[in-house]
């Protein structure tokens, strides 16, 4: 079908218009007819037209798809992490009933037994602690040992978590006796990776920390506790006859509440337990378990401060996606304004506004879906890079992955984004703002006043979001700068660390020889100026803790007895870490095992124990070792 149109343009322009009208009229008549009888075919025709439009404007389409794809890719990547860690349930039955007690990593064995006997509304209570040790996948010590992160726990742990093993069994009460044979329950990953998924693995033995340990169970795939790094669980085997049972606080208590026990009832129960603990035990003020007793649900306890960081990053990326949508909306609106002659001609040929609106929406949705596919590809390609830069510790990156849920989220987000960027041109079309005369050229004179207002609003929104992001970034930089400018008491520059693990069964003489040789050989390496050893690195964790008795301070006895965090160190640590020594001397080679014990204390401890005095020569007694040591700070 041909159509003539009067115009004042040149002959070439007249031919171009005639050809364009023939193509448009054929498409409109066809799509209108299809729309009356077959909505699906009508929609398919709109999609084909949108694809042809994208091919005719590759630069425009590429810019919109890439801008939206980057925003969608970053958003769905972080959404995958947030969904896997914060939204999805943990691999425990009715996790909302599982509570972790206050003052974790600080409960003694006798306190656990005391609480379990009086557990009240809790179905059961368990105690656990994490550790690591060298191990071999068999009882043969040939070949290099691997480092195995494991958890020691009471037999009731798997009852509290209520997750049955995939193979074999969990712990029994007999396994938790001090004289019981060593056994272990292993993770699905350890079974697959180290033991070849042996279906007969139950009853097989491995060498852990020098002990021949028999495997009694394999946990299901995806199970972890307390972190994905932990690959095995061993019985705690509390021994009431040992000093550790009575004096050392290193356990965390976890309990399963009875069905229907709400937060108020749980809080009332732990307050009752705290009062009973105060009647039975004497606590120093700094570690008084009778003060502020509470519980934390297992999900937020395991995730910890990662939750806030992930939500903050997700919000930031979402704002970047909003900026990308604003850019795309501005481009689509500008392109729709350029096509005002086309829309006017379509209307003249019989297309109603709903038909034109549908075309704009479909074109925007196709752009959004293309951006979703692009974003998914970006998310898959950069997912591991993203995980490496997120504040995920203790192996939590292992439990996240880009899967079908991520692809579905990207497609859904692409549809929403496509609909969002079509709102501005659709609004103007419905209000009759895009019915410019045929042949009007784009420019300031050709833009409608309402279109300029929308462009201005989009620019204002982009600037507002950009200012918000820049302000947040500046505050974050200032906070980071403030943290870095604080003096930690040592100089971390040019310092490298290496973690050494050895079996507890290693004789003391052999251990000292190994450490001495390690220091000598490391110090002989090119570029090494100083080498030192310590049981706990500064700022990595708090170190060991225990009560301290201060000689000459009878007021610091009983409930006023202070607790102190402590580390062991070698003479070279002072130079390796460049500690700032304020008074006295550092540990040196004369401070051997057979010599008079000495210690180095920090400024805060000295001022609180001996205000206005020098701490040099003062004496303290640590409850853990029962050894009196003269001070040196």
Summarize the model shown:
This protein is an alpha+beta fold.
Describe the structure.
The protein is α+β, with helices and mostly antiparallel strands and 633 residues long. It has three domains: 36-87 and 311-470, no CATH class; 103-293, no CATH class; 508-632, no CATH class. Helix content is 46%, strand content 13%. It has 18 helices and 15 strands. The strands form two sheets. Strands 2-3-8-5-7-6 form a six-stranded mixed beta barrel. The chain starts with 10 loop residues before the first helix and ends with a strand. The model is unreliable at 1-37, 434-447 and 625-633 (pLDDT under 50).
Please state the average pLDDT score: 78
How many individual domains?
Answer: 3
* Largest beta-sheet characterization: 6 strands, mixed, barrel
Low-confidence stretches: 1-37, 434-447, 625-633
Strand order of the largest sheet: 2-3-8-5-7-6
Number of strands: 15
Shape: elongated
Class derived from helix and strand content: alpha+beta
Distance between the termini: 99 Å
Percentage of residues in helical conformation:
40-55%
Counting H and I runs of at least 4 residues, what is the number of helices?
Answer: 18
Proportion in β-strands: 5-15%
Computed Rg: 35 Å
Tell me the layout of helices and strands.
Blueprint: H1 11-37, H2 39-56, H3 58-87, E1 98-101, H4 109-117, E2 122-136, E3 146-153, H5 157-161, E4 167-168, E5 183-186, H6 188-193, E6 205-208, E7 211-218, E8 232-235, H7 243-247, E9 252-257, H8 263-280, E10 295-297, H9 298-303, H10 306-338, H11 340-348, H12 353-389, H13 404-421, H14 423-430, H15 449-485, H16 508-523, E11 544-550, E12 563-566, H17 573-577, E13 599-600, H18 603-609, E14 619-622, E15 628-632
Parallel strand pairs: 3-8, 5-7, 13-15
Antiparallel strand pairs: 1-9, 1-10, 2-3, 2-6, 2-9, 4-7, 5-8, 6-7, 11-12, 11-14, 14-15
Helix pairs in contact: 1-2, 2-12, 3-10, 3-12, 3-13, 10-15, 12-13, 12-14
């Amino acid at each position: 079908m041909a159509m003539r149109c009067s115009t004042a343009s040149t002959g070439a322009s007249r031919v171009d218009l005639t050809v364009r009208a023939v193509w448009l009229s054929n498409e409109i008549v066809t799509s209108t007819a299809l729309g009356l009888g077959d909505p699906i075919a009508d929609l398919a025709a709109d999609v084909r037209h949108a694809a042809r439009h994208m091919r005719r404007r590759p630069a425009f389409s590429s810019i919109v798809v890439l801008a939206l794809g980057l925003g969608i890719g970053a958003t769905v990547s972080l959404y995958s992490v947030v969904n896997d860690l914060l939204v999805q349930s943990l691999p425990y039955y009715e996790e909302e009933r599982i509570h972790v007690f206050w003052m974790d990593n600080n409960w003694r064995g006798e306190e656990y037994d005391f609480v379990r006997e009086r557990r009240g509304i809790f179905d059961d209570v368990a105690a656990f602690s994490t550790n690591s040790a060298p191990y071999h996948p068999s009882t043969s010590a040939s070949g290099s040992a691997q480092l195995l992160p494991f958890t020691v726990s009471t037999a009731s742990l798997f009852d509290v978590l209520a997750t049955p093993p995939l193979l074999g069994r969990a712990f029994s009460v007999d396994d938790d006796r001090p004289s019981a044979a060593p056994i272990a329950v292993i993770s699905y990953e350890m079974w697959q990776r180290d033991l070849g998924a042996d279906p007969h693995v139950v009853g097989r033995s491995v060498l852990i920390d020098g002990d021949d340990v028999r495997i009694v169970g394999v946990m299901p795939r995806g199970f972890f506790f307390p972190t994905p790094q932990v690959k095995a669980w061993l019985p705690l085997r509390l021994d009431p006859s040992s000093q550790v049972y009575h004096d050392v606080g290193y356990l965390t208590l976890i309990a399963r509440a009875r069905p229907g026990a709400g937060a108020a009832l749980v809080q009332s129960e732990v307050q009752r337990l705290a009062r009973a603990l105060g009647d039975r035990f004497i606590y120093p003020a700094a570690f008084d378990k009778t003060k502020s007793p509470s519980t934390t649900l297992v999900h937020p306890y395991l995730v910890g401060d990662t939750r806030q960081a992930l939500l903050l990053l997700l919000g930031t990326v979402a704002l970047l996606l909003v900026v990308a949508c604003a850019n795309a909306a501005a481009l689509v609106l500008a392109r729709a304004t350029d096509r005002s002659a086309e829309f006017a001609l379509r209307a003249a040929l019989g297309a109603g506004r709903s038909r034109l609106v549908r075309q704009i929406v479909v074109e925007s949705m196709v752009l959004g879906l293309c951006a979703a596919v692009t974003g998914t590809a970006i998310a898959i390609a950069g997912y591991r890079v993203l995980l490496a830069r997120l504040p995920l510790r203790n192996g939590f990156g292992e439990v996240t992955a880009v899967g079908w849920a991520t692809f579905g989220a990207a497609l859904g987000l692409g549809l929403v984004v496509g609909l969002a960027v079509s709102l501005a041109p659709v609004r103007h079309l419905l209000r009759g703002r895009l019915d410019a005369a045929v042949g009007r050229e784009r420019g300031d004179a050709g833009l409608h006043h309402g279109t300029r207002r929308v462009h201005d609003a989009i620019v204002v929104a982009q600037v507002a979001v950009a200012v918000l992001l820049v302000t947040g970034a500046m505050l974050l930089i200032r906070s980071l700068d403030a943290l870095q400018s604080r003096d930690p008491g040592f100089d971390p520059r040019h310092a490298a660390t290496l973690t050494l693990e050895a079996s507890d069964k290693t004789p003391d003489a052999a251990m000292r020889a190994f450490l001495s040789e390690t220091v000598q050989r490391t110090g002989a390496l090119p570029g090494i100026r100083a080498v030192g050893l310590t049981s706990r690195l500064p700022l990595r964790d708090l170190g060991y803790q225990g009560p301290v008795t201060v000689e000459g301070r009878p007021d610091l006895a009983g409930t006023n007895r202070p607790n102190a965090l402590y580390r062991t160190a070698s003479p070279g640590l002072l130079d390796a870490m460049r500690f700032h020594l304020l008074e006295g001397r550092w540990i040196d080679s004369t401070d051997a095992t057979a010599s008079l014990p000495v210690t180095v204390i920090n400024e805060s401890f000295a001022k609180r124990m001996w205000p206005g005095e020098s701490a040099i020569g003062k004496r303290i007694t640590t409850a853990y070792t029962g050894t009196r040591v003269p001070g040196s700070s």
